[in-house]
């Protein structure tokens, strides 16, 4: 993931959680309502099947073994995938306006590469553009405590229109996985509440992967809270379920001011489902991490070499055995705790970048929000593969 991608990926959950009053604001009453998008037009989509677009990218990965040995892992999309994936991206827009326009910039196309394109091995890929709340608006809202005139309903209505267009023109009875991160997860959460949960269309939904957001469930239960009919996923053959988590380093749990891992409702907790161990417990994470700069800004420290004495030339790396994850629920919150199992004696790095850094300081309340999707990408793809088989068998 490039410098610009990491920088822009940070923002969305602050929008949904840290600035709740801002999230409900809308455009000034005097402004005429913006026209709806026409999702029959090709340019309103970042990804659609059969095109050379933001999802048709190089995902070649260098696998770095504990002893430093390097092997290349090729990637091939499945043009005949039997199911679909529908993705809503996080806050990435660098547009100078409160809501983004409908012109895809490098920030939109690059986050698709990092968070979504790899699902092309299992799904036909659909990713609409939408007029999201921008980074500029989010920063202003966080600085002022809310009230910046951005229109949250505008982005949601775009996602709703894109979803309805997909159902009416593309779905044709196929199963679909919903995938989002941060602001994108917030949009999909609202879409599920309004349009899917407990309704006939839910039978088409294999799962919803809602990453980097706080989904409420009753303590020690898997359903209720945010959704009434869609439980948390506890097996790879379970359908119509939800995978949601936020990530923190195991030695840096959510602080008192954390944006993530908590919900405000009494008797509820934030959902945590580990894609590597759906039933619970600690498991190895099959991460696909950026081989390049992993900082939030130019103030962030450059990562150390992935392996001593070797140059990585692929866009992604995989580090088997280096990362393990376990869902933890305690007084600090409910979150996916990531442990780095480094060995100073071997040539592979012992440090995985992913913290948010501002003013030279690690923002511990963000956890590993920047790499929520990365640390479990291989596990998520594997779960979708198993759910696809279960759906087709059913």
UniProtKB/TrEMBL annotation:
Q: Which SUPFAM superfamilies match?
A: alpha/beta-Hydrolases
Question: According to the lineage, what is the superkingdom?
Answer: Bacteria
Query: Pfam families, from UniProt?
Result: DUF3089
Q: Where is the signal peptide?
A: 1-23
InterPro entries for this protein:
AB_hydrolase_fold, DUF3089
Report keywords, A-Z: Signal
| Keyword Signal assigned | yes
Name this protein carries in UniProt: Lysophospholipase
